[in-house]
Design goal:
Elements: E1 2-4, H1 7-15, E2 21-26, H2 32-44, E3 47-52, H3 62-67, H4 72-82, E4 86-88, H5 92-95, H6 116-119, H7 123-138, E5 142-146, H8 150-162, E6 168-172, H9 192-197, H10 199-204, H11 210-219, E7 224-231, E8 246-254, E9 257-265
Parallel strand pairs: 1-4, 2-3, 2-5, 3-4, 5-6
Antiparallel strand pairs: 7-8, 8-9
The structure holds pantoate.
Pantoate is lined by residues 25-27, 55, 58, 127, 130-131, 149, 152.
Length: 266
Amino acid sequence: MKQFLTQDALKSYLQNKGGSIGFVPTMGALHEGHLALIKAAKAQCEQVVCSIFVNPTQFNDPSDFEKYPKTLANDIKLLTETGCDIVYTPEVDDLYPSGMKNLPHYPLGRLEELLEGAHRPGHFQGVCVVVDRLLQAVQPSHLYMGQKDFQQIAIIRKMLEITKSNVNLIECPTVRESSGLAMSSRNSRLSAEQKTQALAIFQGFNSPSAAAFESALVANGFETVDYVACCDPITLENKPWDERPCQILVAAFIGGVRLIDNQFMP
Ligand code: PAF
């Protein structure tokens, strides 16, 4: 696997390669969920590029940014074993050469006011800026993203529309531990007991009401529930709890760690 630290070096290397490029943007601390994206890209594309960059502009909570797990040596080992061709590991200056103020603004509309948008102001603008810049650097034919970040996929779909990008956005299913817990880099900040308590999320999707789901989360040690919502899977607008089909989305804190998950209810 080749590693590049700058987009100039990455671009000139890729220029001489023909064929399809599958791109998996990540913030590192890789787990099976990320590796499933690499495998999906490998199955469809001639070159697979992964980026590892903890993007400062998408963190609305400075302590979440500081505590974000960093495991670069292990990430590179996992990517090599999974058959990734190229890893791009830039420093902040490479993606933000003019600094992190006065960044472009994407007219995302309602999508960024709902759910994560309401609880993490500015988060999706930061995601759009960095993904747009990463796409300029990599120029992939296919972009792979995981459904655990369900709203992020909807936002990126909208951003691709706004920027008139013709990249193929490929959504891949959430990868879960055998217990049902959705894989997340933030899980590494949970104790064994908190990981067990966190199963209340997976077990809660079939709750009779949003209030029952929230109470079960609190009863299992979650200190704050940001939202439990039944939504239209496309617009993410709220729907009555028992309407089907719908997407149930949840965000809650346990041990100071914010977890998100979602499930399609046919
Ligand atoms: O999902 C993530 O890890 C990040 O939001 C992404 C897409 C890599 C942008 O920084």
